[in-house]
Write a structure and sequence with these properties.
By secondary structure, this protein is of the alpha/beta class. Helix content is about 35%, strand content about 30%. GO terms for molecular function: translation initiation factor activity.
């Protein structure tokens, strides 16, 4: 969001540090003198650093300045990419065919450019055999290796072991 700057008569300070339209520092001048200089050049006096002592003001075309800020903000929004995280849940006692089906879903997510969270949930006595869950995750990683890479290694979070997969093109950029 673009912050509103004080311009021309909205500035209430007695003295300001002035920068002219070419970027040259003129020095500390009275506000009236700074306003007169801006008016002579048919430009605006804009307070760009209100926290400074004395505040810094610049002579510029405020409309053009705001337009360029808005344009830069729009460009940065265009370049942003939303990363979705899809989840695939497994269990330590999953059969191979079910694992292949889940891997097929994960491949589809990775091809769409989404990250995939793969979790193995342990129930009851299964908590004593977390190594089986790690083996399931390793097998799963091998199945999808041509579409994605492990972004975060498997680790326990409560009763689940979780790992994150990233699409191959993302992994190459990092």
């Amino acid at each position: 969001m673009i912050k509103e700057l004080q311009i021309n008569e909205a500035i209430r300070d007695k003295e300001v540090r002035l920068i002219d339209d070419q970027g040259n520092q003129i020095g500390v001048v009275a506000l009236n003198h700074a306003l007169d200089l801006a008016f002579e050049k048919k430009l605006d006096l804009v307070k760009i650093a209100p926290q400074a002592k004395p505040p810094v003001c610049r002579i510029m075309d405020y409309g053009k300045y705001r337009y360029e800020l808005i344009k830069k903000e729009k460009d940065s929004k265009k370049k942003q990419r939303v990363i979705n995280i899809k989840e695939v849940r497994l269990s330590p006692s999953i059969e191979i065919h079910d694992l292949e089906t889940k891997a097929k879903h994960a491949k589809k997510f990775l091809q769409n450019g989404d990250r995939v969270k793969v979790s193995v949930r342990f129930r009851g006595r299964e908590m004593g055999h977390t190594n089986i869950g790690r083996e399931v995750l390793d097998t799963f990683t091998e199945m999808i290796s041509e579409f994605g890479t492990v972004d975060k290694r498997p680790k326990m979070e409560g009763r689940s072991m979780v790992m994150f997969l990233a699409p191959l093109k993302d992994a190459e950029e990092n």
